[in-house]
Structure to design on (165 residues):
C-alpha cells in the first residue's frame, strides 16, 4: 500500500477549509498554484468537493478518483472508488497522487500521505469544515514556511509540511 501521497489544501489559521460545501476564502493565485502543483498527476477527491467544482465536473488533464459510497454515482471523466483501499489500489502504479479534499477525504487519507502543500491564509474565517491540525500532529513538521504574500487584502504563504520517516 503506497504511503507517499501528497495533500493540497488551503487552510486558515484555525485550519478551517470551507463552509456550507464551498471554500470560504478564495485567492486567485492559489488556484494557479493548485494547477501547477497537481500538474498532470492523479487527484483523489470526495464526492461533495467534486460537486463544488465548476459544473460539478472532474479536473481536466488529471486522473480523477472520486470517493463515494453511492453505487449508482457516475461522473463523466472520473473513476469512482468506494473506499480508501480501493482508491489506493486504483492509483498504485501512478506517479504523483494528490489528495485534494474535502474534510472527510483529508482525514481518511492522511495516514497515507508524506507531504502537504498548504496554502496558509493568515485570517480566521467562519468554517464548518477543517483540516487536521498538522502543527499538533506527531511526525508532521513545517519544512518550508514559504514567502508571505498578499492578495485582495488576504495574507498567505505557500507552505510545505512533511511527515518524518
Ligand atoms: N480549502 C480547501 O483547500 C478545500 C479543498 C477541498 C474541499 N474543501 C472544503 O471541504 C468541504 C467538504 O468536505 P466534506 O468532508 O463535507 O466532503 P468531501 O470529503 O468532499 O466528500 C464527502 C463524501 O465523500 C464520500 N466519502 C467520504 N469518505 C469516504 C470513504 N471512506 N469511502 C467512500 N466514500 C467516501 C462520501 O460520498 P457519498 O455521500 O456519495 O457516499 C461523502 O459524502 C467543503 O466545504 C469544501 O469547500 C476545502
Amino acid at each position: 500500500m503506497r504511503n507517499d501521497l501528497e495533500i493540497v489544501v488551503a487552510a486558515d489559521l484555525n485550519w478551517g477549509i470551507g463552509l456550507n460545501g464551498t471554500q470560504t476564502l478564495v485567492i486567485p493565485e492559489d488556484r494557479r498554484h493548485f494547477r501547477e502543483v497537481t500538474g498532470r498527476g492523479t487527484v483523489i477527491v470526495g464526492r461533495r468537493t467534486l460537486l463544488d467544482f465548476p459544473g460539478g465536473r472532474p479536473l481536466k488533464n488529471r486522473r480523477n478518483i472520486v470517493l463515494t459510497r453511492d453505487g449508482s454515482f457516475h461522473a463523466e471523466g472520473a473513476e469512482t472508488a468506494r473506499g480508501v483501499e480501493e482508491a489506493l489500489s486504483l492509483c498504485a502504479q501512478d506517479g504523483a497522487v494528490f489528495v485534494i479534499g474535502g474534510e472527510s477525504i483529508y482525514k481518511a487519507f492522511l495516514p497515507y500521505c508524506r507531504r502537504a502543500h498548504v496554502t496558509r491564509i493568515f485570517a480566521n474565517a467562519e468554517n464548518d469544515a477543517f483540516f487536521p491540525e498538522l502543527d499538533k500532529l506527531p511526525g508532521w513538521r513545517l519544512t518550508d514556511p514559504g514567502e508571505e504574500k498578499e492578495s485582495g487584502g488576504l495574507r498567505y504563504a505557500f507552505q510545505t509540511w512533511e511527515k518524518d520517516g
